[in-house]
């Protein structure tokens, strides 16, 4: 929880906002809850925010964020990463475990939790590692992390695949006892040794070692069967291929407890962008082809893919401005996610705003058991709200980035929409499209 | 041209022009005094992040024949982290006064990154990048082949209708890629032959026929040239094919296969050769082999490439 003395809930009237169901009304945020919905609410005693023409969504929830702290503070910190989240309209992020040290013990996840609370820009939910040191050999301190103050419910070796089927099975069985979820980075390590780019026409021409679609699909196929066998909950990170969508569709038709995410970049970008060897487009799993993009969009539209998650992966300029094979994998994505979903799913007619609310807020909060988030805006709901202007289209630039790193694949690209305001715990983290400077609280513990 | 990064982006006119300039350079190499004053006062840096004695000395000879000052820099094993090493090394060399950087690098795309980076103003000449391209090798191969086919009437001509087999490890070969683009730009018909495991995935759109059967390809194509690629020893331990013997039996240019080639078919190899493995000595040492002509053409080709990039002469 945020120190109430520091960032106290404030009083706002968001006038003339449009909810995801199309209703246009005023929203009163009061005393840490959404107190009232109605028309022409009295703004006295509150800050009036003109929300005419803006869409009000429950604060966005990211199930897949790299905040880099501890260990990678040169690229991002919990504070700067949660600022990037706020600017992107997020009020909660789940911080991946591949830090240094790895989040494989209670003490590391509690540290990340405390850093998130101290920053105050978003709820930071630490994800615990599945295996010690992400080495894929021994289970991490899963029980201790689950019972810690961080109450970890999502476990992932993201960046590495839990490739050993026996370790995967045991992890699923273990996590099932407290209804946690295992978020798998599906990548067969042997099929992707040295892999640099989607295996296909572009990798063949560029002479970059291929990352075949089957390396993702084979692991997902195995894992959904293990999830069925164990009865545990499986979540598949960053689905990138048409074949993966097919495997998921089959698994869901069998009633297997599996959910899946797609990243904004896999909804928009393809491997053709690698043709100039610009390492901003290097990401894991790699950018795929037009037909894969069409398949993941269709999968997200029909619910086969449950959510959009950013895989926000900040990197210093040095680790991107170099030869492709030496460059780091990953792109920042928090600040651009809503605009990319707008462009790829709403402007194409595949999702309406209620659908966006579902894939970027309600369902990710449910999968990750992120309490106090993902509640559709109603009287009595949590005061986690994002105001988005869908009309503004502009060239995305470095001034749109609020995190520490600049490795966005969208720089110089025209994107629709802009986050105008974000409210978290009843106070504003973004107002008039600008980050609100919050005082940093003391880190507890 | 400002840089020479690949053959993929050369137009037919540009490619023919480079080959014609190579003819000019080759002609000067028949004189008693081989040295030209063309690049006097220019500095050429051979920046090699990967061992390659042959390519390096070929570039060195080419630069010296043009009177350029040559600095050879072997950066392999440098302890600097990879990315910084390319930027810092290139900038250091430019600060010393490099006009052209000849770059050999194990990472595909490194010359393109260097050329586009804004780190340097020097021209970049790709001397082989990872498994991407090796444009001067393809140019010297095309020059050699054009000479064999058109002789003194080569100037201004392409390789229209010339049938070429490229045999071996296509997957890891920058020579194969550069040759494919250049040969087809010049009008040749290319057939790629090799084990399926050493054929890149996703080459359905490439302007080439793909075959896994060398005997069938020789019989069907009746090639004008057969280009044997060097097979790296580590491919054997990586299980790309069952054994060296099987590779040699199925995809080597054995004496029997050499005898089955059309009588006019030229035998090419970029070197160094694994004699008895991908090529039998009877083929390598025959009058139809161009192996040493290719080495000689390499110097003329690199003189042309250095001249065109260092002076920015239009192609």
TrEMBL record, chain A:
It catalyses: (S)-dihydroorotate + H2O = N-carbamoyl-L-aspartate + H(+). Its EC number is 3.5.2.3. Zn(2+) 2 binds at residues 158, 185, 238. Binds 2 Zn(2+) ions per subunit. Residues 55-242 form the Dihydroorotase catalytic domain. Catalyzes the reversible cyclization of carbamoyl aspartate to dihydroorotate. The gene is pyrC. Keywords: Hydrolase, Metal-binding, Pyrimidine biosynthesis, Zinc. Zn(2+) 1 binds at residues 64, 66, 158, 311. InterPro entries: DHOase (IPR004722), DHOase/Allantoinase_Hydrolase (IPR050138), DHOase_cat (IPR024403), Dihydroorotase_CS (IPR002195), Metal-dep_hydrolase_composite (IPR011059), Metal_Hydrolase (IPR032466). PANTHER family: ALLANTOINASE. It comes from Amnibacterium flavum. This is Dihydroorotase.
UniProtKB/TrEMBL annotation, chain B:
Its EC number is 2.1.3.2. The keyword Lipoprotein does not apply. It catalyses: carbamoyl phosphate + L-aspartate = N-carbamoyl-L-aspartate + phosphate + H(+). Residues 160-308 form the Aspartate/ornithine carbamoyltransferase Asp/Orn-binding domain. L-aspartate binds at residues 82, 174, 230. GO terms for biological process: 'de novo' pyrimidine nucleobase biosynthetic process; 'de novo' UMP biosynthetic process; amino acid metabolic process. Signal peptide: none annotated. The keyword Transferase applies. Pathway: Pyrimidine metabolism; UMP biosynthesis via de novo pathway; (S)-dihydroorotate from bicarbonate: step 2/3. One of its GO terms (cellular component) is cytosol. Pfam families: OTCace (PF00185), OTCace_N (PF02729). Gene3D superfamilies: Aspartate/ornithine carbamoyltransferase (3.40.50.1370). Carbamoyl phosphate binds at residues 54-55, 104, 134, 137, 271-272. Residues 2-146 form the Aspartate/ornithine carbamoyltransferase carbamoyl-P binding domain. GO terms for molecular function: amino acid binding; aspartate carbamoyltransferase activity. PROSITE patterns: CARBAMOYLTRANSFERASE (PS00097). Heterododecamer (2C3:3R2) of six catalytic PyrB chains organized as two trimers (C3), and six regulatory PyrI chains organized as three dimers (R2). Catalyzes the condensation of carbamoyl phosphate and aspartate to form carbamoyl aspartate and inorganic phosphate, the committed step in the de novo pyrimidine nucleotide biosynthesis pathway. This is Aspartate carbamoyltransferase. It comes from Amnibacterium flavum. The lineage of its organism: Bacteria, Bacillati, Actinomycetota, Actinomycetes, Micrococcales. The gene is pyrB.
């Amino acid at each position: 929880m945020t120190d109430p003395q520091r960032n106290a809930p404030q009083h706002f009237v968001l006038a003339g906002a449009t909810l995801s169901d199309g209703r246009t009304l005023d929203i009163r945020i009061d005393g840490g809850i959404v107190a009232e919905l109605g028309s022409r609410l009295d703004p006295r005693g509150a800050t009036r925010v003109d929300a005419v023409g803006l869409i009000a969504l429950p604060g966005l929830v990211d199930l897949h964020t790299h905040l880099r702290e501890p260990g990678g503070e040169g690229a991002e910190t919990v504070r700067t990463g949660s600022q990037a989240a706020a600017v992107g309209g997020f009020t909660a992020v789940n911080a991946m475990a591949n830090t240094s040290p790895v989040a494989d013990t209670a003490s590391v996840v509690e540290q990340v939790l405390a850093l998130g609370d101290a920053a105050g820009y978003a709820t930071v939910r630490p994800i615990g590692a599945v295996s010690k040191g992400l080495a894929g050999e021994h289970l991490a301190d899963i029980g201790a992390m689950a019972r810690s103050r961080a109450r970890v419910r999502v476990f992932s070796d993201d960046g590495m695949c839990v490739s050993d089927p026996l370790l995967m099975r045991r992890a699923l069985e273990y996590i099932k006892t407290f209804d946690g979820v295992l978020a798998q980075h599906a990548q067969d390590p042997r099929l992707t040794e040295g892999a640099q780019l989607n295996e296909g026409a572009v990798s063949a021409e560029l002479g970059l070692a291929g990352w075949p679609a089957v390396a993702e699909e084979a692991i997902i196929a195995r894992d959904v069967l293990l999830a069925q066998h164990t009865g545990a909950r499986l979540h598949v990170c960053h689905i990138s291929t048409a074949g993966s969508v097919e495997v998921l569709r089959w698994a869901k038709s069998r009633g297997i407890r599996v959910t899946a995410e797609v990243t904004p970049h896999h909804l928009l970008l393809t491997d053709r962008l690698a043709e100039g060897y610009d390492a901003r487009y290097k990401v894991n799993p790699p950018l795929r082809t037009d037909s894969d993009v069409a398949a993941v969009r269709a999968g997200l539209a029909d619910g086969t893919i449950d959510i959009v998650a950013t895989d926000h992966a900040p990197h210093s300029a040095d680790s991107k401005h170099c030869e492709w094979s030496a460059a780091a994998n990953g792109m920042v994505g928090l600040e651009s996610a809503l605009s990319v979903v707008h462009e790829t799913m709403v402007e194409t007619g595949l999702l309406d705003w209620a659908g966006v609310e579902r894939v970027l807020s309600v369902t990710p909060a449910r999968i990750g058991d992120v309490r106090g988030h993902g509640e559709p805006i109603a009287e009595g709901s949590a005061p986690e709200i994002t105001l988005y202007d869908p009309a503004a289209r502009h060239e995305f630039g470095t001034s749109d980035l609020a995190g520490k790193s600049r490795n966005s694949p969208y720089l110089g690209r025209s994107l629709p929409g802009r986050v105008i305001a974000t409210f978290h715990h009843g106070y504003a983290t973004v107002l008039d499209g600008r980050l609100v400077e919050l005082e940093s609280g003391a880190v507890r513990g | 041209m400002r840089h020479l990064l690949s053959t993929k982006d050369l137009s037919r006119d540009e490619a023919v022009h480079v080959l014609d300039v190579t003819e000019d350079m080759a002609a000067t190499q028949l004189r008693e005094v081989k040295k030209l004053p063309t690049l006097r006062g220019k500095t050429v840096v051979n920046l090699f992040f990967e061992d390659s004695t042959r390519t390096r000395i070929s570039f060195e000879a080419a630069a010296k024949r043009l009177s350029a000052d040559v600095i050879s820099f072997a950066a392999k094993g440098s302890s600097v982290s990879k990315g910084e090493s390319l930027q810092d090394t290139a900038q250091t060399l430019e600060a010393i006064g490099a006009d052209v950087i000849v770059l050999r690098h194990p990472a595909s795309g490194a010359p393109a990154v260097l050329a586009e980076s804004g780190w340097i103003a020097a021209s970049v000449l790709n001397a082989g990048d990872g498994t991407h391209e090796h444009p001067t090798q393809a140019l010297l191969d095309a020059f050699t082949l054009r000479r064999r086919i058109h002789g003194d009437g080569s100037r201004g001509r392409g390789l229209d209708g010339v049938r070429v087999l490229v045999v071996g490890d296509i997957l890891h070969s920058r020579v194969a890629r550069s040759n494919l683009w250049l040969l087809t730009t010049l009008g040749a018909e290319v057939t790629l032959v090799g084990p399926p495991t050493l054929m890149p995935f996703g080459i359905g759109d490439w302007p080439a026929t793909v075959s896994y059967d060398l005997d069938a390809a020789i019989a069907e194509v009746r090639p004008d040239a057969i280009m044997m690629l060097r097979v790296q020893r580590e491919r054997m331990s990586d299980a790309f094919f069952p054994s060296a013997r099987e590779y040699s039996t199925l995809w080597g240019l054995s004496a029997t296969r050499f005898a089955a080639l059309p009588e006019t078919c030229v035998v090419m190899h970029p070197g160094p050769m694994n004699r008895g493995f991908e090529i039998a000595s009877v083929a390598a040492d025959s009058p139809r082999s161009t192996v040493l002509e290719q080495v000689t053409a390499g110097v003329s080709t690199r003189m042309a490439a250095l001249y065109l990039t260092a002076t920015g002469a239009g192609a």
